[in-house]
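New to this. Explain the following:
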Amino acid sequence: MFKFFKKFRAQDDGAVTVDWVVLTAAIVGLAVALIAIIANGATDKSTSVGAFLSTHEGVSHN
C-alpha cells in the first residue's frame, strides 16, 4: 500500500491541465472585471453627452 501511494504521488500527468484551467479562469475573471469597468465609464459618458445635447437641442448656429 505504501508503494502505491509513493508511485501515485510521483505521477504528474494532469498537473499541466490544472495549471491551464487556473490560468484561463484568472484571465476570464480579469476580462469580466475590465468589461464591467469600461461599461460603467461608457454609460456615464453617454449619459452626460445626452444631457448636454438635450440642453442644446433648439439652438441653431447660423
